Amino acid sequence: MKTLVRYLTLSLIRKSGYALLPYLRTRRWPKVAMTVLLGLFLLDRLFPPPLSVPYSTIVTAADSTTLHAFLSRDDKWRMYATLDEITPTLRQTIRQKEDRWFRWHPGINPVAMMRAAGRNLLSGKRTSGASTITMQVVRLLEPRPRTYGSKVIEVLRAFQLEVRLSKDEILQLYLNLVPYGGNIEGIKSASLLFFGKPPQLLSLAEITTLAIIPNRPSSLRLGENNAAVITARNAWLRRFLAAGTFPRQAIDNALLEPLNAHRRPAPNMAPHLSLRLQSEHPNEPVIVSTIQANVQAATERLVRQYVDRIKAQNIRNAAVLVIDNQTGAVEAYVGSAAFGDVVDGGQVDGVRAVRSPGSALKPLLYALAFDQGLITPKARIHDVPTNFGGYEPDNYDRQFNGPVTAEFALANSLNIPAVKLLRDVSTPVFVAKLREAGFRTVQKQADDLGLSMILGGCGVTLEELTRAYTAFPNRGQRRDLAYVRTLSAAALAPESGQARPVRVWSTPTFSPEAAFLVTNTLTQITRPDLPNNFDNSYHLPRIAWKTGTSYGRRDAWSVGYNRHYTIGVWVGNFSGIGVPNLSGANTAAPLLFQLFNAIDYNAPTGWFRPPTGGKLGFRQICPESGDVPEHTCAGRATDYYIMGVSRANRCGHQQQVWTNSAATVSYCAHCRPAGVDSLSRPVARMYPNLAPEVVAWYAASHRPYAAIPPHNPACSRVFGNGGAPLITSLNAGSDYFIDPKSPADLALSCQTANDVQVVYWYLNNGLFRKAKPTETIFFRPTPGVLTVSCADDKGRVSKVRVVVKRG
């Protein structure tokens, strides 16, 4: 509009100047007129009206419900009302009361000015004014003393506004600046703070009430002198009836309407998100967020009530993020249980606080392992005590399950299989995947992260974790989160811009097949992270979910999703204090289930189906190993696999061993006797091909297993095709510090194959001791470089080198 007016004005001046040039050479007054017009144009350019108004920032929900409001820079409640919020009734009321000829005059009303001047001259004092709505806007933008000189300036400024703005924009500016006493300005501020509703929902009686307050702000105080307000309101309603402004029925109803106006607190929902959006868009008076008001209200209520119940356990805060899976729009954002709670850190934004994720990253690791072909759901992983170069993780319940399937390990959140899987995937590859998924803290910590990160040895935020989980319900496509739908464009002038939609993108994170396999596992309800105190017979929502508990029980996590929503929950204390009763299963998961039941109960959106495209299929496997079965495999099972990706190893969980008839001695190919009768003839038997760590766990836990008999003692050949002993203590490359005054003994232990009966320990190439494979032995170290060797009875040797130092 502004550009169009400027263009037409300049074009008119230029064209009229060419046409009147001969006339101007012979006449003087046209030159004077043109000079005056040019001067006015230059003055307008040099001294534009001050249209930059410091509005209060208001954050609204997606349906324009006001969530939160902030004071303006000059500490005013001056909320910006859009043109859509100015209803026809409001327009008509204001025009009838303030300026009936507003639509037709050029900014001033000459008739009204002459009438007012005559009355003032006759009375000798100022008895009436002639200010139009445009002139009142000028006065609100630039307050001046009430003098005749100021009136002249107001007239000139009024002309400027009429040229620059449309009538609707001038009326909008008036309604945004009109004072209501104290620090309340604008129709929207008054509407929300006195009536608790937006301007478009005001009744005729309420509109008339707000229309008369600015003329008498000291005597007509809403909430303090409502009787006087009703009297003045009804007087104006009768004037409107006499003027035919509104139908009689509407006036009669308005006259009977009671006045329920009092000072209310400013809207304060979603305070953490509102502060975040205000800092990101500091000059925007209206920020339309993606928040759904009903979802936000229900989430805030449930979080507040839940934390009130668990405060007796010294657990004092929680944070929740609710994401629409289809659009990435954040529909609820709760940073803490109570923003005003200064004792328990209520103003900390738990959605963006960096915390330890516990086991909550495991689904992302398993999805990556599926995509790399390292595992299938029924592939076997050993859940036994394992030393990873000095790092010896333990399970949450301090129990071990032996060989388990990958889906069992994920569903039961076993730690040892997860660490083994991270070792196979490699930490740098997993870190790169998390960096790609938007984990900024992990990116900063990348150089210091090791295998412990999968058990919580890194920092994440609830926002990062929940956003990453959106890849699972979206066929591997992670949603980029959207917090804002549109931004208002009235920071500088009402006509300065257009509402801008915010685009939402999705990023490939995993394959659709890997996402489905993880979802299929996390949907199981026969899991240890199902809350003990939750009524799962009726109230358990149909979701896929994962929990996590950080070291020291400082953070409890639960992230779940269905077709519609992904919801992330964190529960704990912002102070970082651990609580013995805190756990993802029994502390965070119940709140997650309550949220799904409250905002998406019995959602008719269906459930996840296997992806189309032919890449995900079934195949037969050996249930003992999860590999493609051999003829020696006794049983068969079916398992998902990703064609062209998943490994296709032949099953090797058994090995053939030649023994004597009593199975007390085993033979190799070099010493196996020919045998002439049934007693001396060697027998081929099948024995489990157990990994060394499994053998060690069976022996340590006194579990029976089929051990290979000792080798023929008469055989003198060097033999053995299996792996060398795995030294689990000492740790290769480590430094050990001893106290010279009272040196402590160091332990030696190893893990061997199923066919080993005896191992031999060497210290700096000198035989130290003969021992059983499962036996731990001790020695007294001396300072210096130490080489430890372990040889089994098959001639296989492994070595580690350490340094012993004085402490």
Automatic annotation (TrEMBL):
<dbReference type="InterPro" id="IPR050396">
    <property type="entry name" value="Glycosyltr_51/Transpeptidase"/>
</dbReference>
<comment type="similarity">
    <text>In the N-terminal section; belongs to the glycosyltransferase 51 family.</text>
</comment>
<dbReference type="Pfam" id="PF06832">
    <property type="entry name" value="BiPBP_C"/>
</dbReference>
<comment type="similarity">
    <text>In the C-terminal section; belongs to the transpeptidase family.</text>
</comment>
<keyword id="KW-0121">Carboxypeptidase</keyword>
<dbReference type="InterPro" id="IPR001264">
    <property type="entry name" value="Glyco_trans_51"/>
</dbReference>
<dbReference type="GO" id="GO:0009252">
    <property type="term" value="P:peptidoglycan biosynthetic process"/>
</dbReference>
<protein>
    <recommendedName>
        <fullName>peptidoglycan glycosyltransferase</fullName>
        <ecNumber>2.4.99.28</ecNumber>
    </recommendedName>
</protein>
<keyword id="KW-0645">Protease</keyword>
<keyword id="KW-0808">Transferase</keyword>
<feature type="domain" description="Penicillin-binding protein transpeptidase">
    <location>
        <begin position="319"/>
        <end position="559"/>
    </location>
</feature>
<dbReference type="InterPro" id="IPR009647">
    <property type="entry name" value="PBP_C"/>
</dbReference>
<dbReference type="Pfam" id="PF00912">
    <property type="entry name" value="Transgly"/>
</dbReference>
<dbReference type="GO" id="GO:0030288">
    <property type="term" value="C:outer membrane-bounded periplasmic space"/>
</dbReference>
<dbReference type="GO" id="GO:0006508">
    <property type="term" value="P:proteolysis"/>
</dbReference>
<dbReference type="InterPro" id="IPR012338">
    <property type="entry name" value="Beta-lactam/transpept-like"/>
</dbReference>
<keyword id="KW-0511">Multifunctional enzyme</keyword>
<keyword id="KW-0328">Glycosyltransferase</keyword>
<feature type="domain" description="Glycosyl transferase family 51">
    <location>
        <begin position="68"/>
        <end position="239"/>
    </location>
</feature>
<comment type="pathway">
    <text>Cell wall biogenesis; peptidoglycan biosynthesis.</text>
</comment>
<dbReference type="Pfam" id="PF00905">
    <property type="entry name" value="Transpeptidase"/>
</dbReference>
<dbReference type="GO" id="GO:0008658">
    <property type="term" value="F:penicillin binding"/>
</dbReference>
<dbReference type="GO" id="GO:0008955">
    <property type="term" value="F:peptidoglycan glycosyltransferase activity"/>
</dbReference>
<dbReference type="InterPro" id="IPR023346">
    <property type="entry name" value="Lysozyme-like_dom_sf"/>
</dbReference>
<dbReference type="GO" id="GO:0004180">
    <property type="term" value="F:carboxypeptidase activity"/>
</dbReference>
<dbReference type="InterPro" id="IPR011815">
    <property type="entry name" value="PBP_1c"/>
</dbReference>
<dbReference type="InterPro" id="IPR036950">
    <property type="entry name" value="PBP_transglycosylase"/>
</dbReference>
<dbReference type="InterPro" id="IPR001460">
    <property type="entry name" value="PCN-bd_Tpept"/>
</dbReference>
<feature type="domain" description="Penicillin-binding C-terminal">
    <location>
        <begin position="721"/>
        <end position="802"/>
    </location>
</feature>
<keyword id="KW-0378">Hydrolase</keyword>
